[in-house]
Design a protein that fits this description.
By secondary structure, this protein is an alpha/beta fold. The protein has a single domain (about 5-230), classed as Alpha-Beta Barrel (TIM Barrel). About 40% of the residues lie in helices and about 15% in strands. The protein has helices at about 5-25, 45-50, 65-75, 95, 110-120, 155-160, 185-195, 210-215, 225-230, and strands spanning about 35-40, 55-60, 80-85, 100-105, 130-135, 165-170, 200-205, 220-225. Helix 1 packs across helix 2 (about 45-50).
Length: about 230
């Protein structure tokens, strides 16, 4: 085991312990929570090390980084379950779709239609299985954040309901950056209530700074980068 593998493994162990504690506080089972390790700016070596430490679900937020990294990883015989967690422009769908197992940033019917079109053309890894998608919701109402407004979610869900290759499994949000994670608890709670109002169980919410609060409020996926992989590399 290399030093960096040990570091990632040790960090993952600490994260899992904190997740277990958060689940216990909320009366939840740890099996309900999936960690998505965000490898943004980290090389394929980090992907290999994460897999060696048992972390299969990995995320990227830029198409121009995901595609070459996924291809390099595949060339090394590595098979992570890739999640795309960043804003996705329609002209990047063709580049991203062949690699991902989950999309966390569906924010419009037009984007869903582009995914549907590309999947019909055989761009999807498995054309017989719809792509699990989380609708990104700008719960905090921040002008700098992407995502649909809460009031638009119902219309978006109706717009994608008949698509063969897009399956909405939940909602996603990026909480505002604050000094105290307790300040964003209402954001996570609102997303949970919105998801349940639409009959959705999946909740992609919580990052390094606030994932424990997110889990207490029902997160089923947490997107963690720095707490697992250390500082971003330039």
């Amino acid at each position: 085991m290399t030093t960096s593998t040990a570091t990632i493994a040790t960090r993952l162990e600490a994260v899992r312990e904190r997740i277990a504690a958060a689940c216990e506080r909320a009366g939840r089972d740890t099996a309900e929570v999936t960690i998505v390790g965000v490898t943004k700016t980290h090389p394929v070596d980090a992907v290999e090390e994460a897999l060696a430490a048992g972390q299969v679900d990995l995320g990227e937020n830029r198409a121009q980084e995901l595609a070459p990294k996924a291809e390099e990883a595949a060339g090394m015989g590595l098979a992570p379950r890739w999640h795309f967690i960043g804003g996705l422009q329609r002209n990047k769908v063709r580049q991203v779709l062949p690699h991902i197992a989950v999309l966390h940033s569906l924010d419009s019917v037009r984007l869903a239609a582009e995914i549907e079109k590309r999947a019909e053309q055989g761009r999807s890894p498995d054309p017989d299985v719809p792509l699990p998608c989380y609708v990104e919701v700008n719960v905090g109402g921040e002008a700098s954040k992407q995502g649909a407004e809460a009031a638009e979610v119902g219309e978006l869900l109706r717009g994608v309901a008949g698509m063969r290759h897009v399956e909405v499994v939940g909602l996603m949000t990026v909480a505002p950056q604050v000094d105290d994670p307790e300040q964003v608890r209402p954001v996570f709670r609102e997303l949970r209530e919105l998801a349940h109002a639409h009959g959705l169980e999946g909740l992609s919410m919580g990052m390094t700074e606030d994932y424990e609060v997110a889990i207490e409020e029902g997160a089923t996926m947490v997107r963690l980068g720095r707490v697992i992989f250390g500082p971003r590399r330039s």
